[in-house]
Amino acid sequence: MRLIRSCLMMLEYVLVLSAYLFSIGIYGLITSRNMVRALMCLELILNAVNINFVTFSDFLDNRQLKGDIFSIFVIAIAAAEAAIGPAIVSSIYRNRKSTRINQSNLLNK
């Protein structure tokens, strides 16, 4: 009984941490005006989601690694975003001389 209670407390702490990270990422993504900051907040959101996947995979069923595999898939997507995102931002900066989101209307030249 004591072990179950401690596992539930640990689950609660990890989920609260993940919720804080996700909330900070969403707030930063909504309020950021800089593209680099928006990319960093997007990475924070993806890491919070990964924490949830791994936590629930470990807590609900240890034999099936569906949450862990999906977390690795999300990490691969985040790595691609981390490689392509700064390249796009630097290209926009070279053309527009600004990385502010509200100043870069890509449909108008």
TrEMBL record:
<comment type="similarity">
    <text>Belongs to the complex I subunit 4L family.</text>
</comment>
<keyword id="KW-0472">Membrane</keyword>
<dbReference type="GO" id="GO:0042773">
    <property type="term" value="P:ATP synthesis coupled electron transport"/>
</dbReference>
<dbReference type="GO" id="GO:0016655">
    <property type="term" value="F:oxidoreductase activity, acting on NAD(P)H, quinone or similar compound as acceptor"/>
</dbReference>
<keyword id="KW-0812">Transmembrane</keyword>
<dbReference type="GO" id="GO:0009535">
    <property type="term" value="C:chloroplast thylakoid membrane"/>
</dbReference>
<keyword id="KW-0874">Quinone</keyword>
<dbReference type="GO" id="GO:0048038">
    <property type="term" value="F:quinone binding"/>
</dbReference>
<dbReference type="InterPro" id="IPR001133">
    <property type="entry name" value="NADH_UbQ_OxRdtase_chain4L/K"/>
</dbReference>
<comment type="subunit">
    <text>NDH is composed of at least 16 different subunits, 5 of which are encoded in the nucleus.</text>
</comment>
<dbReference type="GO" id="GO:0019684">
    <property type="term" value="P:photosynthesis, light reaction"/>
</dbReference>
<keyword id="KW-0618">Plastoquinone</keyword>
<keyword id="KW-0521">NADP</keyword>
<dbReference type="InterPro" id="IPR039428">
    <property type="entry name" value="NUOK/Mnh_C1-like"/>
</dbReference>
<keyword id="KW-0520">NAD</keyword>
<keyword id="KW-1278">Translocase</keyword>
<dbReference type="Pfam" id="PF00420">
    <property type="entry name" value="Oxidored_q2"/>
</dbReference>
<feature type="transmembrane region" description="Helical">
    <location>
        <begin position="69"/>
        <end position="93"/>
    </location>
</feature>
<keyword id="KW-0793">Thylakoid</keyword>
<keyword id="KW-0813">Transport</keyword>
<protein>
    <recommendedName>
        <fullName>NAD(P)H-quinone oxidoreductase subunit 4L, chloroplastic</fullName>
        <ecNumber>7.1.1.-</ecNumber>
    </recommendedName>
</protein>
<keyword id="KW-1133">Transmembrane helix</keyword>
<keyword id="KW-0150">Chloroplast</keyword>
<comment type="function">
    <text>NDH shuttles electrons from NAD(P)H:plastoquinone, via FMN and iron-sulfur (Fe-S) centers, to quinones in the photosynthetic chain and possibly in a chloroplast respiratory chain. The immediate electron acceptor for the enzyme in this species is believed to be plastoquinone. Couples the redox reaction to proton translocation, and thus conserves the redox energy in a proton gradient.</text>
</comment>
<keyword id="KW-0934">Plastid</keyword>
<dbReference type="GO" id="GO:0030964">
    <property type="term" value="C:NADH dehydrogenase complex"/>
</dbReference>
<feature type="transmembrane region" description="Helical">
    <location>
        <begin position="7"/>
        <end position="30"/>
    </location>
</feature>
